[in-house]
Structures are given as C-alpha cells and as structure tokens.
Design brief:
alpha/beta, 5-stranded mixed β-sheet, binds ligand 0RQ
C-alpha cells in the first residue's frame, strides 16, 4: 500500500528486504523494534538471517548484536538464532530457538530491566548503535512516523542509530494513528527534569516518532501480521490465584489502604496474568485503570466492559480474536489506550508516583520471599526479567504469583532457597499460589517463612519445608534468616538428579 509512505524523500528509498539487509554488516549492533510479539520488523531480520547463513556457508564470520524492546517472534529472534547470527541479545526474549542458543552458551544474553535499556544506550554503556530496523504503520508527508502496535525502544533506536531501516507494515490498522504518546523530554543526568505525568492516561508527548530522513538508508514495505498467539483459557489454578488476589484487594479497600477503584494495575505476561484480568471482570471493582507495559486480552475485555476506564502500555499482546475486536473498535479505544516508550511505561519515578499495583508471574520463591522470575534450576534462562523489576521495586503493592508446583507436581515452586534471585525479599510484598496468599508486609524473615509455607506451598511439600526451617533454626547458624547451607539448594539438586524434588 504505497499510500502509507507520503514523504517523497523516504519514498525514494523503498527497496526489497534483501537489499535492505545487505546494508547490515558483521559486528553491527542492530536496534530492532518489537515488544511481546507486536510491532517487530517482519522481513528484514529473515533476509539478514539468509545473508548470515550464506556468509557462514562461505566460511565467513557474520554475527550481530540484537537489541529490542522485549520479546519478538520466530521471524526475528527465531530466524537469527537458527542462523547462529546473534553475538549478543538484549533485553527480554521468549523464543525457543533463542533460548536454546543462550542455554547452550552460543549466544551472549544481557537480561536487564526494560526501563534501563534506553538510558544505558544514551549513556553509551553498550557502545554505538549502528543500525535501527523499526516497523512503523505509516510515514507522514513531513517525514514523521506513525508508530506500530508497540513502541518499546523505537524512539531511542531512531535517535541513536547511525543508519535506519524502516519497515512500513500496511497490515497494521491505519486507525492506530493518534494512539501513541512519544515523550521527547527525557534528558541525561545531571540535567533531568521531573516527567510531567500524574495520571495513567496523561498525554505528555507527541503522537509520532521523529526521524532524521538523512539517516534512513532503506524503506521496506510489508503486509504481515503480528505474532498474535492465543491464550489458553484460565485453568483452575489460575482462577484460584485470581480469586485470592481479588479477595485481598477487596480487604485492602475495606481497611482503607486502597481506594474503591484501586490504583493503576500493572499485569505481567502469560496465562496467569491474563486470568487475573479475567477475574477482575467478574469482580465488584469499577473505574479501574492500568499503567502497565503489555496490554493482553484480559485487559482489553476490562476496557470493553467499562470496568476499566483507561490503560497505558508500551505494546499490545493480543490473540487473533482480541485483535479483531480492537481493530473493529479502535475509534472508541483510541482515547482510552495510550502506547508509550518503554522507558516511560516502566519508569520508576512514575511507578512510584502513580502507586502501581504490580502483579507478575514467577518461576519460584523461597520461604523468605526472594523471587526467581527467570532461571530454571538456577542456570537455564526461561525468558528474562522483563519489566517485573521496574514495577516490583517501585510499586505501591508488589505481588508475585505462580502455581505451587510445576511439571506435574514434581517441582515445588516454594523452595528453601531460590536458585536465582531477580526480586529480593525487599521488593516482594505478596506471594500467591492456588493454595493461598502470603501477605509479607511488616514481617521479619522468620515470620515470612511460616506464612509462605502455610499459605503458598503445596501440602505435599509443606512438612519438608517446615522441617528445613526448624532444623535451620537449631543448626547453630544465624537465626535472622535461618539456612542450612549444605541443604539450601538440595531440592534443585534432587530434581536434576532424579527428576523430582520429592
Ligand atoms: O514451562 O511450558 O515448558 O511446562 O515455566 O510457566 O506456569 O505457564 O507460567 O506463563 O505465567 O510464566 C515466570 C516464566 C511464568 C513468566 C514466567 C515452567 C512451566 C512452564 C511457564 P513448560 P507457567 P507463565 C512484564 C513482566 C518474567 C518477566 C516478567 C516470566 C513455564 O511470568 O517470564 O515478569 N516472567 N515480566 O512448567 C521449573 C519451576 C517452574 C518451571 C514454572 N519452579 N521450575 N520450571 N516453570 N515454574 C512483561 C514483560 O516484561 C515483557
């Protein structure tokens, strides 16, 4: 759809994906658009992967650094990982091929807080950004860009990259125009000013991305769908987790610690997070708001029903059915949904000011409340920390949730000591499993252990956890956070050796 590119200078740079990919070289750091399967470039990464395959077949070195917003899709992370073309990947990923390369030690992976990425690039911590490959949904006559279904780090990539490749995707709805809010006021220390956002749906920036046309080396036209995978319908455990959280929030309202319409909600990725949103649909709460990074199906339902008034995010992550719903009703949703750069959607200053209720999934928690969001058995990456830390540390309430067991009950998600820590005991206020909810606020480590074991652990694992704690108390070691050092990770060891923690 040629009419999507109204600027004549940029029109003159239209070329094929293969021609554009030829402008990326070995050793380049490439900033790609894309966040949780939305708004990623659809054709240039695959063309780059083919180029890398050909180079490798000819015995030449060819690897690039891939920086994104968050997770992308098989056409990007999958294609480049399969070609073994990625020297270093950052930040969040969730692609099976990419994960396999990382865990095989064949790809470096920098798992950093999503709000840190843009500023670390501006600070120069990661070296130069050579190329940006950014999907947009259109180009205005004056050269400004209509963003796509995610913003992620696109502002920073466009500002910082030496060379820019734009993918103009006519599959994206033209009605996305006006939904975005790109804040151009971020400065570098020591010149930073307060970010003037005080309500979740405030608009503080511009609806378009700016680009220096002189830096644009290629414009590629595409018509490809986002990843848009379906969610599994909430299972019993997810529904129970949602139920515990809603009951807890209701009791917080009763006790005067939360307003009747709560505070802005942040909800993580995955099926449990989606189930919590679905649970809120049947809850008594009204006039909810969201200040989050990903807008999933459950949240769209809340918006549609009127239970939620407005939502702010940096990306959509919708099933095909929900996307259809959104597209059909974009005129109504445009004023109620704001998409922002991830440095703003996840900004600690704003998370603290707005008083976010943060709800994120986890792999495991230990009895003292340390949370592992990222690593299986201490060493294999699952996805990454994503934005969970941006929100958890600065939230009004930080909630972490998981089923009490994994892998058919062979793994306890409540363990004596977390095998990897993403969120320390200091950043975790509430832990929820289908068994119950542990409110850790105001509790010392020893008090927390009792509540976590009794409320959250699966009954099959409770006696062994109590036994661990009791013996740790009597071991002669410190009694502030009692541990048996020779046993603390023995549950994980047992699983790796026998296939079960039992
Ligand atoms: O693996 O599918 O191979 O069986 O982990 O677990 O229960 O389906 O839960 O989809 O909510 O994901 C922490 C990964 C949870 C996610 C995590 C295995 C389990 C399964 C998935 P299988 P579930 P979810 C904002 C916030 C970090 C980023 C974040 C995540 C798979 O929530 O990536 O919070 N969070 N971002 O079997 C071994 C355990 C396990 C385990 C679960 N204890 N040991 N395997 N699994 N517990 C969004 C962004 O930042 C973009």
């Amino acid at each position: 759809d040629a009419s999507r590119i109204l600027n004549s200078t940029l029109r003159s740079k239209i070329m094929s994906a293969d021609e554009a990919a030829a402008l990326i070289g070995h050793g380049d750091n490439v900033g790609m658009s894309g966040f949780t399967g939305a708004g990623y470039p659809k054709v240039v990464p695959a063309a780059l992967a083919r180029r890398i395959d050909a180079a490798h077949a000819a015995g030449q070195e060819f690897r690039v650094g891939v920086w994104t917003g968050a997770s992308t899709a098989p056409e990007l992370d999958g294609a480049l990982a399969r070609a073994n073309g990625v020297e270093l990947r950052m930040p969040y990923q969730s692609d099976p091929a990419c994960r396999a390369r990382i865990n095989a030690g064949e790809m470096e992976y920098l798992d950093i807080h999503l709000s840190h990425v843009a500023q670390f690039v501006w600070f120069g911590f990661f070296g130069p950004l050579n190329v940006a490959v950014v999907e947009v949904s259109g180009i205005l006559e004056d050269g400004r860009l209509i963003p796509s279904s995610s913003i992620g780090n696109n502002k920073t990539w466009l500002d910082q990259a030496d060379r820019i490749i734009l993918e103009v995707n006519s599959w994206q709805s033209p009605k996305l125009e006006g939904m975005h809010d790109i804040y151009y006021g971020t400065q570098l220390p020591p010149h930073r000013q307060p970010i003037p956002l005080v309500h979740p749906n405030d608009r503080i920036g511009e609806a378009y991305l700016r680009v220096d046309p002189a830096k644009v080396v290629a414009v590629v036209e595409t018509h490809h769908p986002d990843r848009n995978s379906a969610f599994t319908p909430p299972d019993d455990a997810s529904r129970q987790i949602a139920g515990h959280i809603i009951e807890f929030l209701q009791s917080e309202v009763k006790r005067g610690r939360l307003p009747a319409n709560l505070l802005p909600l942040q909800s993580g990725v995955g099926n449990i997070a989606n189930a919590v949103m679905a649970g809120l649909l049947d809850s008594p709460f009204e006039n909810l708001t969201a200040y989050t990074e990903v807008l999933q199906d459950g949240m769209l339902e809340l918006l549609k029903s009127g239970k939620m008034t407005t939502a702010s995010a940096t990306a959509f992550s919708l099933s095909p059915a929900a996307l259809e719903e959104l597209t059909a009703n974009l005129d109504q949703f445009r004023e109620r949904i704001v998409l922002r750069p991830q440095e703003i959607s996840n900004h600690p200053e704003l998370v603290r000011r707005l008083g976010i209720i943060a709800m994120n999934g986890m792999i495991e928690a230990d009895i003292y409340g340390n949370v592992n969001s990222t690593h299986v058995m201490g060493s294999s990456i699952m996805n990454g920390i994503g934005g969970s830390g941006d929100f958890a540390r600065n939230a009004y309430l930080s909630i972490f949730m998981t089923p009490s067991t994994a892998k058919d009950g062979k793994i306890s998600c409540i363990v004596p000591m977390a095998s990897h820590v993403d969120h320390t005991e200091h950043d975790v206020q509430v832990i929820v499993t289908e068994q119950g909810l542990a409110d850790l606020r105001g509790l010392s480590p020893r008090q927390r252990a009792q509540v976590v074991i009794d409320q959250c652990a699966h009954p099959d694992f409770r006696p062994a956890l109590h036994d661990y704690f009791n013996r740790a108390m009597e071991s002669g070691g410190g009694r502030h956070t009692p541990h048996l050092l020779q046993e603390a990770l023995s549950w994980h060891l047992r699983y790796t050796q026998t296939g079960t923690m039992r």
